[in-house]
Amino acid sequence: MISKELEKAGLPVALISAMFPVAQQVRANRIVKGVSIPHPCGDPTLSKELDARLRREIIQTALRALEAEVTGPTVFSPAAAMGG
Amino acid sequence: MIKIVHVVNQFFAGLGGEEKAGLPVGVIEGSAGAARALEIKLGAEAKIVSTIYVGDNYFHEHKDDAVRAMLEAMRAVEPQILVAGPAFNSGRYGMTCVEVCNSIANELAIPCVTAMHEENPGVDAYREFANIRVYCLPTAETTAGMTDAMTRLALFAVRLAGGEDIASARQEGYIGRGIRRIEKTERSGAARAVEMLLKKIHDEPFASELPMEVWDDAPPAPPLAQAKDCNLAVVTTSGVVPWGNPDKFKTYRNTYWRKYNIAELKALEPGKWEAVHGGYNVAYMNQNPHYGVPLDALRALEAEGAIGPGKLYPAYYVIPGNQGSPTVMRRMGQGIAADLKNEGVEGVLFVAT
Fold it and tell me: A30, A45, A50, A63: best mutation site toward chain B, by most B Cβ within 10 Å?
């Protein structure tokens, strides 16, 4: 809802959300898959290092989304940064 | 005999136009001015005992006083129902009607009905209040729809005051408030769902029992040529705020946003920040606020050049996004958008929970 008003004002928005089906439904345009609702930017079950790496990956994906030409709701998936 | 009080603006009370918009609250016994059209439609079972008028400007400039005066006037005559308007597409008048209905319904516990065009800003307020005792009927845009509006207001008012059951907005034709009501039906949810699904498969028309909010389609904003050359800002609905919640956000239905400075920070230290949000388990966010405001990753990318030096806006924007009404969220979105533009931000990283 808020992100759409920003887009209407001409600002590209990378929406990082674990609820990406909802984001698609409300027709957000640049959607980045978050990890889960209580922690979209990272995963507390990972080690500190991997968690930080995953978070960086998510933000990199968001930056890529901001540079992408899109015509409607598009989901961008961070490449899994989880080594195991 | 049903006793009705009718609230109108100075114009419909027959007292004058814009030059009289500063008139304070006044009471006329019986019906008055153009508002008499309502009395004519009422028939024998109901009567307008008094007409309360208020100037379009006066109401908005002295809201508390105006509502108090109206309450007093109404207590004196003890009506069973309040009718306000119709306001058609007049914005100030529409807002007055809705605010009066909401206050009176809450204070006197009587039903209230108003009417206006669906694009009147009063309709947004009406949906926001979602008051179970207040109904708003749609009208034409202009007074050309007067006869029709008065006829429907009169019918509706008599039914409401008579304690009749009012069905859903779709069945009755009033403007939906977004209130979900429990209804009994003969058939189970499973049977109804299968029936609906079959209709959908066969391309036949069907109506959902849980209509979704209609989302307007915003065309995508043009992309950034190079994110690293652009001013970026973080906006989040996660509810991450400085420890102690200095701006007293609630865990739900917030109506304002704030921004918090991160200019000098490399990371958000746990214990100095907390998440205020009633819609998810905030334990993870409290342990590591970066799950909502990923400052550590942003600084790392800044160091690598993926984000240009000084290009990250020195504060992040936050609104705990739980249970916000679409109207309020839209208004806050517009406020944040204006501020971002004003500050020269070109692209937004938006973390939603």
Answer: A63
Q: Are B156 and B133 in contact (CB under 8 A)?
A: no
User: Using a CB-CB distance cutoff of 8 angstroms, which residues of chain B are in contact with residue A66?
Assistant: 223-224, 227, 230, 232, 347, 349
Least trusted range by pLDDT, from B64-73, B92-101, B274-283: B274-283
Say whether residue B304 is in contact with chain A using an 8 A CB cutoff: no
**What pairs with residue B28 in β-bridges?**
B51
Q: What is the DSSP string of B35-94?
A: GHHHHHHH-TTEEEEEEEEE-HHHHHHSHHHHHHHHHHHHHHH--SEEEE---TT-HHHH
Domains and CATH numbers, chain B: 2-172 (3.40.50.2300), 227-351 (no CATH)
pTM greater than 0.80 (yes/no): no
DSSP per-residue codes, chain A:
-HHHHHHHTT--EEEEES-HHHHHHTT-SEEEE-SBTTBSS--TTS-HHHHHHHHHHHHHHHHHHHHS--SS-EEE-PPP----
Interface test with A, best of B208, B346, B351 (most A CBs within 10 A): B351
The pLDDT of residue B279 is 79
B232 SS3 class: strand
Chain A partners within 8 Å of B266 (Cβ): none
Q: Write down the pLDDT at residue B321.
A: 74
Q: How far apart are CA A74 and CA B161, in angstroms?
A: 51
Q: What 3-state DSSP class applies to B269?
A: coil
B210 interface with A at CB cutoff 8 Å: no
Nearest-CA residue of chain B relative to A15? B350
Return all residues near B277 (Cβ < 8 A) that are at least 6 apart: B237, B238, B239, B251, B285, B320, B321, B322, B353
Which tens digits make up the pLDDT trace of B194-214?
A: 999 999 999 999 888 876 655
Write the burial class of residue B48 (CB in 10 Å: 0-12 exposed, 13-18 middle, 19+ buried).
buried
What integer pLDDT is reported at residue A57 of this predicted model? 95
DSSP β-bridge partners for residue B61: none
Reply yes or no on whether the pLDDT at B216 is more than 80: no
Residue B149: CB atoms within 10 Å = 25
Tokens of B287: 């342990």
